[in-house]
Amino acid sequence: MSIFSRTRDIIAANVTDLLDRAEDPAKMIRMIIIEMEETLVDVRASAARTIADQKEMRRHIARLEQLQASWTEKAQLALSKDREDLAKAALVEKQKAAGMAAELSAEIVVLEDALSASEEDIAKLQAKLREARARQSSVMARMESARNRLRMREVYAGERLQDAFARFDLLERRVDLTEGRADALALGAPPRTLEEEIAELRSTDEVEAELAAMKAARGQEG
């Protein structure tokens, strides 16, 4: 593919459509940017060669103009010496030089048109490249967000989480069994009598009284 057809294809391409059709948008946009950068380098190199060709042609035209002036001078000298044949020959050479200069001038015009087209292509390529780079940032941000969401969903729905909750269930079952055994030990035990309950209250009062006496004694010592 020539540089010109490749440039036209890139300029005409819709970056958004390319990304929508891509299986891996991040990879696709990297490829697009690389292709644009390489094409931009090629277009600029082609423009540089065109400018160099124009300069060389202008130098050649300048030499041809000097040659025309020289042949004119020679024709005038020959005519002054009554050598019309030499004067005609000199004028023929002058016309040849003039014809070559005209051809070169026409080629310069063609190159000017090509250079103008290259300048337009460069401007369009740069705009496309800016668009692609802007889309790259957006695509990479979206891709990172999507990967994070995927990791979270894998955690929520993954086997590791299910195993962890299964272990929790097992631990809860063990606690239930332990509590059940403790409750089972109390089954069938005779209820306390009224006297036992009152005795427990008296014991509690005695402990509280003894504790209060100890606190009072420590206060007097202080």
Short description:
By secondary structure, the chain is an all-alpha fold. It is 91% helix and 0% strand.
What does this molecule look like?
The chain contains 6 helices and no strands. Helices cover 91% and strands 0% of the residues. The chain is rod-shaped. It starts with a helix and ends with a helix. The chain has helices at residues 3-12, 15-21, 25-80, 84-157, 159-186, 194-221. The chain is mainly alpha-helical and 222 residues long. The model has no long low-confidence stretch (mean pLDDT 79). Helix 1 (3-12) packs across helix 3 (25-80) and helix 2 runs antiparallel to helix 3. The chain folds into 3 domains: 3-157; 159-189; 195-222.
What is the end-to-end distance? Answer: 105 Å
Compute the gyration radius: what is it?
Answer: 50 Å
Shape: rod-shaped
Total strands? 0
Secondary-structure-based class equals mainly alpha
Give the fraction of residues assigned to helices. over 70%
Query: Largest sheet at a glance?
Result: none
Order of helices and strands: HHHHHH
**Total number of distinct structural domains:** 3
Number of helices: 6
Uncertain parts: none
Which band does the percent of strand residues land in? under 5%
